[in-house]
Amino acid sequence: MKKQYNFQNWLQTKVSDDPEVVLAGKLEYLRLYLTDAMRELRTKAGLTQAQLAEKLGVQQAAVSKLESALKDHELESVLNYLHKLDADLLVAVKQGNEFYQVSDNSGILLVDLPVEVQELATSKGMSLREYVQAAIEHFSSKGRTVRESVTAFLESDDVVAVQVLERLAAKSPVEIAIELEKCLSISDEEERTFAIKNALAGGIRTGDNNRDASDEDDEIELLDLAESLLEKLAKVLEDSVNNISNSG
């Protein structure tokens, strides 16, 4: 909407201690906000009051009354008005720290945000909605696990990733990522490398003394691949952390 009333600041303004006066003020504000939104929706739809009245099956005077902040409004009439404009009324109830959304929440959720969030959004030159969506995107990426990052790497066309998938063709990228995640949690660098080598060997430790030359060649190849994979994964995880820092 073009007009952005600051409901929280308005409610916090001390006008009177009389409960009736406070209630009257809240009702006045809600009428102003609601009718302004209704008029703007109708205007955006390119409809005159008369045209919308025809859709509603009422007289133009009835639409004019609905768009007047000086009149009382029946909830059913307001909902019908909005429905004809493909709009919904979202309603929530707040008591102390408790917040309840009582309208349909299948498409969107109302969230109890302090007024400071609006100030932060304004300081960034963003609308409140844009700011919250950016925050959600930021924290979603921040919550990306090691497993998800490793899986994404394995599903890429990187040469090392392709070699890993070829060696462990019987396993999915997610299954491989789960094993690699365990290996990466090992603090000792040498042990971590050999754990990855064993994972690349299909989990079979090849430590017996009766290996032929081809076995030894494969051991060397596995170790080289393990070291290359570790380097790649270190870069992937570092980039993930940097992206989160930069987005903040």
What this model shows, in words?
This is Helix-turn-helix domain-containing protein. InterPro entries: Cro/C1-type_HTH (IPR001387), Lambda_DNA-bd_dom_sf (IPR010982). It is a single chain. The protein has twelve helices and two strands. A hairpin with a 2-residue loop joins strand 1 and strand 2. It folds into two domains: 105 residues, lambda repressor-like DNA-binding domains (434 Repressor (Amino-terminal Domain), Orthogonal Bundle), CATH 1.10.260; 102 residues. 64% of the residues lie in helices and 3% in strands. Helix 8 crosses helix 10 and helix 11 packs across helix 12. It starts with 6 loop residues before the first helix and ends with a helix. Strands 1-2 form a two-stranded antiparallel sheet.
Strand content: under 5%
Number of domains: 2
Along the chain, the helix and strand elements come as: HHHHHEEHHHHHHH
The helix tally amounts to 12
The termini sit apart by: 28 Å
What value does the Rg take, in angstroms? 31 Å
CATH topology type of the largest domain: 434 Repressor (Amino-terminal Domain)
Sheet with most strands: 2 strands, antiparallel
Uncertain segments of ≥5 residues (pLDDT<50)?
204-211
Q: What is the assigned CATH homologous superfamily of the largest domain?
A: lambda repressor-like DNA-binding domains
Shape: elongated
User: Which strand order do you get reading across the main beta sheet?
Assistant: 1-2
**Mean pLDDT across all amino acids:** 82
**Proper CATH architecture of the largest domain:** Orthogonal Bundle
CATH class of the largest domain: Mainly Alpha
SS elements, strand count: 2
Helix content: 55-70%
SSE-based structural type: mainly alpha
InterPro entries: Cro/C1-type_HTH, Lambda_DNA-bd_dom_sf
Protein name: Helix-turn-helix domain-containing protein
Pfam families: HTH_3
Organism: Floridaenema aerugineum BLCC-F46
